[in-house]
């Protein structure tokens, strides 16, 4: 760490100390929770926090008043964005003019623009989560942060703030070859420690450019790479690790809750943030636990938001637990996209998106890839390839082995698969409702 970065780090922790050291206490609490050896002990640790949350909401939220006789969390209803939006005023514990709230907006990439309130305590907990999990990936406060995302006016920082945070804003919409070349030149000339965080689709553009110019690995002192908001393909992970000589981990988070889980270096599974959340995986159709070997809906209870309570909140995402037998602490084996973005085979069964993500490495000539299910047996595979796709028949046969022998699979070649308004790219689009 160079002198200026040390000053940033020391100054940050000095300021926290002057404010009571609450951030450091939260980070220590998260670290201590992660060291707990059994799930029953984690539940015991969280029990008083969860009880305080539930007692407050049944007393202070009109929406939850009717649940005063609850026996456990299971007695509370599962809610989603639409339910919270429609009942916003009666769900909230704190009014919108309270000096203790922070307003949080999601991007609306699900089709439902969404605003909730968080207490300042919750916002501080989120900050502690970010700092703790960034550190596990190799990032140190004060290091230069290369943040790849859609930088709308809402998110852009002033020059002063960027300097204080040591932040480089890299807009995923402005990643033409000339922009990437300028970025590479800039980070090569500055040897201070740095970390990437951002959308895999942005990492993909950077790597495709480096492939195109037949670049050697970049000597620029990258210490950490965190992929977020989109599926991370093994091909992108491997290329980022090759070009920047740093480990890549994937993070699962959302704007309304925060960091729900993240891979540790070298792990394929996601370590769940049990320190800040209680998480369930429920059946795709019913509000009951999903079977252990099946994908289900990720349902979150936020232990620290006492403004807009998020109790049994259906995130809209899908996942599957692993490592949950014999009182082991559950992790996510799989975290994937929204229920509306899952595939069904021709028999109407769910096809795990993990199968798709885990096998794309076999086709390195594909720059971009998207599947659209139009009907029960009709699938369009959009592909962007620099060269003739010589493995077309093998590719179709492989996916038909999962979709069904009667699947009607067609290939559609394109120069670019467009991003969503949020700057993210959907790998799967399902227009069929079984």
From TrEMBL:
This is Phenylacetate--CoA ligase family protein. The keyword Ligase applies. Gene3D superfamilies: N-terminal domain of ligase-like. It comes from the Bacteria. InterPro entries: ANL_N_sf, CapK_Type1_Caps_Biosynth. It comes from Flavivirga rizhaonensis. GO terms for molecular function: ligase activity. Keywords: Ligase. SUPFAM superfamilies: Acetyl-CoA synthetase-like.
């Amino acid at each position: 760490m160079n002198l200026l970065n040390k000053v940033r780090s020391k100054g940050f922790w000095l300021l926290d100390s002057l404010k009571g050291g609450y951030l450091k206490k939260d980070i220590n609490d998260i670290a201590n929770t992660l060291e707990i050896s059994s799930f029953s002990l984690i539940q015991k640790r969280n029990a008083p926090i969860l009880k305080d949350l539930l007692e407050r909401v049944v007393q202070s939220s009109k929406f939850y008043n009717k649940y005063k006789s609850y026996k456990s969390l299971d007695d509370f209803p599962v809610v989603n964005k639409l339910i919270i939006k429609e009942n916003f005023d009666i769900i909230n514990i704190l009014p919108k003019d309270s000096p203790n709230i922070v307003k949080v907006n999601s991007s609306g990439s699900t089709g439902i623009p969404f605003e909730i309130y968080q207490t300042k305590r919750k916002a501080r907990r989120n900050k502690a989560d970010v700092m703790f999990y960034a550190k596990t990936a190799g990032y140190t406060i004060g290091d230069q942060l290369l943040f790849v995302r859609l930088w709308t006016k809402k998110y852009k920082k002033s020059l002063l703030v960027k300097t204080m945070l040591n932040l480089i804003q890299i807009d995923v919409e402005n990643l033409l070859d000339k922009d990437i070349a300028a970025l590479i030149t800039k980070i090569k000339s500055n040897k201070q420690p740095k970390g990437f965080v951002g959308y895999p689709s942005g990492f993909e553009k950077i790597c495709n450019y480096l492939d195109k110019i037949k670049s050697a690995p970049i000597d620029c002192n990258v210490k950490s790479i965190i992929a977020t908001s989109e599926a991370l393909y093994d091909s992108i992970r491997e290329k980022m690790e090759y070009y920047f000589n740093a480990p890549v981990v994937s993070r699962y988070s959302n704007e309304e809750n925060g960091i729900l889980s993240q891979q540790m270096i070298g792990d394929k599974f996601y370590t769940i943030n049990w320190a800040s959340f209680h998480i369930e995986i429920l059946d795709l159709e019913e509000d009951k636990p999903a079977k252990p070997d099946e994908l289900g809906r990720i349902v979150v209870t936020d232990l620290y938001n006492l403004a807009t309570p998020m109790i049994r909140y259906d995130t809209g995402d899908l996942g599957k637990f692993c490592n949950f037998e014999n009182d082991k602490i559950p992790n996510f084996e799989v975290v994937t996209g929204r229920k509306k973005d899952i595939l069904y085979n021709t028999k109407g069964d769910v096809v795990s998106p993990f199968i798709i993500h885990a096998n794309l490495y076999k086709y390195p000539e594909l720059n971009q890839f998207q599947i659209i299910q139009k009907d029960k047996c009709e699938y369009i595979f959009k592909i962007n390839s620099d060269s003739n796709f010589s493995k077309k028949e093998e590719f179709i046969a492989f996916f038909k082995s999962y979709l069904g022998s009667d699947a009607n699979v067609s290939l559609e070649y394109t120069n670019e698969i467009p991003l969503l308004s949020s700057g993210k790219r959907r790998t799967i689009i399902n227009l069929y409702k079984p």
